[in-house]
Amino acid sequence: MKLIIVEDEKLAAERLKTLVKEYDPAIEVLVCLESVEETVQYLRHHASPDLLLLDIHLSDGHSFEIFSQVNYTKPVIFTTAYDQYALEAFKMFSIDYILKPVTLEALAVAINKYKNMASGFVSADFQRLIPQLTGRDYKKRFLGKVGQRLFFVDTADIAYFQADNKVVYMYDKENNCYLVEHTMEKLAVMLNPKYFFRLNRRYIVNIDAVQQVKPYYNGRLKVSLKGQKHPDEMVISRERVSEFREWAEA
Fold it and tell me: pTM for the full model?
């Protein structure tokens, strides 16, 4: 078995590595990573491990953001000091959720669960199994706020989401702006990836709203939307260009 540890605290990462080896010396820890960006880059350029040991709070954001940037279909064991993310974790690829401090007993239970699943599913596509196991359904509508008024907006009518510091705005295809009570990380889980793509930390766009994509300097792409007026440039980073092309042509 090959696994990756993602943990931004070095002592915690070393402890996890020690516990893994204590559980089974034959398990190969491929690498210990510390951030969302580091993990995304590794998964883009290397074969997926059999298992991912993933902390939720990393140095540059929540680890859920990783799955909005890479197509990862293998199981995950989450390790965290917080219990409020359990439901969100199990809507993704999680087979267990261990609260820190991680013990050998808890880790053994989690890895044994993986082994039992692996023996029952040969080359299982966990991404396809998630909806069946969790009853996952993508958001069909959002509640947007304008002043003191609340509006229902169908997901199909949304052009894009924009993050401004910790505030997230939703724009419909008629350029109406609403405040929404969701982070970009949560939106990435709620939205159907067939239609919505996260361009960067600030923008998630609906493919039906994209009017034009053109080259931008340093190998990036610039996106313009139909009938939308926004002061900032919507730019796709060079690292995400190939993933965006695959999404756009799917």
Answer: 0.51
